[in-house]
Specification:
The chain has 248 residues and is an alpha/beta fold. It folds into two domains: 7-122, 3-Layer(aba) Sandwich (Rossmann fold), CATH 3.40.50.2300; 145-241, Arc Repressor Mutant, subunit A (Orthogonal Bundle). The chain has eight helices and twelve strands. It has helices at 15-27, 38-47, 64-74, 88-96, 109-122, 172-183, 191-197, 209-221, and strands spanning 7-11, 31-35, 52-56, 79-83, 101-104, 145-148, 151-154, 159-161, 167-168, 188-189, 231-234, 238-241. It has a five-stranded parallel sheet with strand order 2-1-3-4-5, with helices on both faces. The protein has a four-stranded antiparallel sheet with strand order 6-7-8-9, covered by helices on one side. Strand 11 and strand 12 (238-241) form a beta hairpin. The radius of gyration is 18 Å and the shape is elongated.
Length: 248
């Protein structure tokens, strides 16, 4: 019988940790599958749609950094990464990898469930949501959309589509930042102002957060990220979205 509970994939190469996290998730009302390596995770995702992935940063056969990069290229599935290091550099790396949140070991069961629920709320996922399904090629009638270049930002579905209708996977932080830019093109934003646009993400804010998000967005939407034509740097001031924005 098909469950209506959100399904979480736990990826960790320690079987005891996988079993523990599955138990915590199930007692909190989630379904949970386990995977011991990147290949297991890919097979699991090929066979089922997951609402969220819990991914250990330090996998042995294939580290979590590599797997997270691949997942973010192919799927908008929310990712919470688990790290044994409290070093700020590692935390910034997690943001660079497009992790939606992170947990530092040791953490409590209560903190784990709170983070999982917070990420799912940010994505506004219903229990039946299938985050890792193929993108829709057309937007629903009546959706609020903004167009720039060859891109369409659907503000209702909170999705970014290419000209051919395919979906460009964005984290919630990336989406909020891009939404701020396209709603007010030609405006110069300071870093502090842009931080305010992403402050509701329930994650700690670091000095490099905005620069990291800008870098990630440029890699995804710019024809040449090294010479951006959409998100431009205003030296000594901040950033500006220089493209024309229209409503279809």
């Amino acid at each position: 019988m098909e469950t209506s509970r959100p399904h979480v994939l736990v990826v960790d190469d320690e079987p005891d940790m996988v079993a523990l996290l599955q138990d915590v998730l199930r007692r909190a009302g989630f379904e949970a599958d386990g995977a011991g390596c990147g290949d297991d995770a890919r097979r699991a995702m090929a066979n089922r749609s997951y609402a969220l992935m819990l991914l250990d940063l330090r996998l042995k056969a294939e580290d979590g950094l590599t797997l997270a990069r691949q997942m973010r290229q192919s799927s908008p599935i929310p990712i919470i990464m688990i790290s044994g290091s409290s070093d700020e550099t590692d935390r910034v790396l997690l943001l660079e990898l497009a992790a939606d949140d992170f947990l530092i070991k040791p953490f409590s069961s209560r903190e784990l469930i709170a983070r999982v629920r917070a990420v799912l709320r940010r994505y506004d996922l219903s229990p039946q949501a299938a985050v890792a399904t193929p993108a829709r090629t057309t937007a629903a009638a009546g959706n609020e959309r903004l167009q720039f270049g060859d891109w369409t930002l659907d503000l209702t579905e909170r999705e970014l589509h290419r000209a051919d209708g395919s979906l460009c996977a964005l984290t919630q932080a990336e989406f909020r930042l891009l939404e701020a830019f396209v709603r007010q093109p030609r405006r110069i934003w300071t870093r502090d102002q842009l931080l305010e646009q992403t402050r509701s993400l329930d994650t700690e804010v670091f000095d490099r957060t905005i620069d990291v998000l800008i870098l990630r967005l440029r890699r995804k939407i710019e024809p040449n990220p090294k010479h951006p034509s959409f998100i431009c740097t205003e030296r000594g001031m901040g950033y500006l979205f220089s493209a024309d924005v229209t409503r279809p």
